[in-house]
Amino acid sequence: MPATARSALTWQSQFRSRVEGVLERRLPPAGAEPARLHAAMRYAALGPGKRIRPILVYATGEAVGLAPAALDAPAAAIELIHAYSLIHDDLPAMDDDDLRRGRPTAHRAFDEATAILAGDALQVLAFEILAGDETLPVDPACRLQMIRMLAHASGTAGMAGGQAMDLAAVGQRLARDQIEEMHARKTGALIRAAVLIAAMTAPALPPERRRGLDCYGTTIGLAFQIVDDLLDVLGDPALTGKCTGSDAMRGKPTYPAIAGVAGARERAAVLVGQGIEALQAFGPEARHLREFAGELVARSH
User: Considering only CA atoms, which of 62, 48, 56 is closest in space to residue 75?
Assistant: First the structure.
C-alpha cells in the first residue's frame, strides 16, 4: 500500500475512533428506560460506518486551526442526523431495505415503530448537543447559526426534500440537472453542512477561506452521491454492505442511468477537481480535505 494511502487510513481511522467515542458518551445508556428505544438508537448510531461526515468536520477544523476537541459536538451532531436519515430511508414506506452496512436495518433488527422513534430521537439529540454541549467553544449566536445550518440541510431544502424528489422520480427519466438537484439535496446538503458548521467554530475565518470551504463542501457532496450511484452498479456487495443493482430494480433515476458509467465517472472527477481547486487559499493545513477529495472518486464502498 502506498505511503499516502496508509497516511489517509491512519488519520481517518483516528477521527473515526474519536467521533465513535463521543457518540458512545452522548447516546443514552442501553439499559436506561425506555431500554428498547435506547438500544435501537445505539444500534443505528454506533454500528459499522465510514463516518464520512464527522471526518469532514474534523478535517475542516484542522484546516482552520482548531483542535479536535473543539469539533466533537458538531461531529457527533452531524453523524446523529445522518444515522436518523438512514433509519427512515430504509423503512418499508421509503426504500424498504433489509440490509444496511452488511447487517439488518433498524426496522428489521427491532420493529418499524421502534425504528421510527429511534430516528426521531437521534434527530433531536443532534440539536440538543449543538444547543448545550459545554465542549463547543462558541457563543450562543454561533450555536444558533449551527443549528440553523443543520436544520436547513435536514429539511425540505436538504435531505427531506431530496428524499421526496427521489420517491417522486421512481419510474421516470430525469434530466441531468434534475438528478444533480436531487443529489445535492438528499446527500450533498449534509456534507456541505459538515464542512460549514466546522468552519463556524472559527468565527474569525477570512471570507475567502469560508467561500472556498463552501464550494468544496458543495462539489464534494454532489460527487459523493454520484460515486454512490456508480457503486450501486459496479460495487462489490461484500464491501458496500448492500445489494448491487437495487436502484435499477426499483426504477430509481441515477447518474449512470442518464450519463452512462463513463460520464458519471467523468462528472465526479470534475467536481472533485473543482473542490480541490476551491481550497487554494489554504496551505498544508487543508491536506486532509484534499486527500479526502482525491480518494472519493476511487472508493470501493
Answer: 56
pLDDT tens, residue by residue, 29-56: 988 999 999 999 999 999 999 999 999 9
Q: Is residue 92 part of a domain?
A: yes
DSSP string across 146-193: HHHHHHHHHSTTTHHHHHHHHHHTTT----HHHHHHHHIIIIIHHHHH
Cα(74)–Cα(265) distance, integer angstroms? 31
First to last CA, the chain: 18
User: Comparing C-alpha atoms, which of 16, 152, 146, 28 is closest to residue 77?
Assistant: 146
Residue bearing cell 457532496: 221
The 10s digit of each residue's pLDDT in 150-196 is: 999 999 999 999 999 999 998 888 999 999 999 999 999 999 999 99
Domain of 205, in residue numbers: 3-296
Q: What is the CATH number of the domain that holds 242?
A: 1.10.600.10
Torsion (CA) 123, 245, 257, 301 in degrees, nearest 10: 60
Inside any domain, residue 30: yes
243 band by pLDDT with thresholds 50, 70 and 90: low
Assess if residue 301 is contained within a domain. no
pLDDT, tens digit, 9 for 90 and up, residues 213-242: 999 999 999 999 999 999 988 855 555 445
* Cis amide bond preceding 284, omega within 30: no
C-alpha cell at 196: 460549514
Q: Is residue 227 part of a domain?
A: yes
Cα dihedral across residues 90, 92, 98, 104: positive or negative: positive
Give CA–CA dist 128/123, Å, rounded: 9
Domain count, the chain: 1
